[in-house]
Amino acid sequence: MNLARRLFVTTCMLAAGGTAFAQGYPARAVKIMVPFPPGGGTDNLTRLIATKLTETLKWTVVVDNKPGAGGNLALDSTAKAQPDGYTLVMAQTDNVVLNPLLYGKLSYDPAKDLMPVGLVARGPAVLVVRADSPFRTLADVVAAARAKPGQLTFASPGTGTVTHLVIEMWQKSAGIRFTHVPYRGIAQSLPDLIGGQVDMYMGSIPTLQSHIQGGKVRALGVTTPQRSPVLPNVPTYAESGFRGVELASVWGLMAPAGTPPDTVQRLNAEVNRLLLMPDVREKIIASGADVLGGSPQDMARLYAEDSARLAPVIRESGIKLD
Q1: pLDDT of residue 18
Q2: What is the pLDDT of residues 11-25, one digit of tens each?
Q3: 219, β-bridge pairs
Q4: Exposed/middle/buried for 112, CB within 10 Å: 0-12, 13-18, 19+?
Q5: Which of 32, 260, 265, 286 is the most exposed place for a label (fewest CB within 10 A)?
């Protein structure tokens, strides 16, 4: 069964089981928290979903950017919110899967204090350098790193993020060492990359695609098994001779634990409905992400699988956060 048909079946089943009990929802504005600053891939995806909910259902949906602590501030606020369906968060692999593995102590437990609502999209990563950089291939970067160990700098959206882990995988695969410079998002890192303060940046394709197409930066490699449809001229890491450097961030909506099941079912059904709309699918795919969707159980299972796969990478890298 193809993805569109699976989403259609899931939507029909969830709508039949939950909408009758959630007809009064929402009675006021629904807030979706974004764990990062405006302008990035997470923010753009959230605003797309919020806009379509407003357009198609006449809901009032407010997007609230709350960056900081690797996404922990937004997830903590959501976890502590009233479990009534009026506060959601656009979670992703970084803060749901990685943060529990990286932080010795969190103020919330994603597994206990939050509950999945539904998967939205998956965003692979891409390595970029400034447009006038001498590096034109991943091999160029590796050669320079071997000639000057630790002197090349790579920027990421933060320590312990998916894109940081990709670089750790690459360093291990190629036997090289960079110096990591963590930022809070693309708004802070892009000017430094273009200005030459850092040598390269690893971020999600949805976040960087417009900058690549606009000629501000040059893409050297993507973390997908196959080339990205929106960056067909950019090779994969595997094509460039670096195996095991494949990773993507998965976005999905989450709610405070204890949110009524019928409300979660209603939200899940509506998100799946949006993901079937041609214009929504086109915008997500055009951004460089893959459309997902499915049940809350699918979301929980996917995050659990990523946790099992990435825990050894974090242990070997020695990355720890306070």
Answers
A1: 42
A2: 444 444 444 445 689
A3: 128
A4: exposed
A5: 286
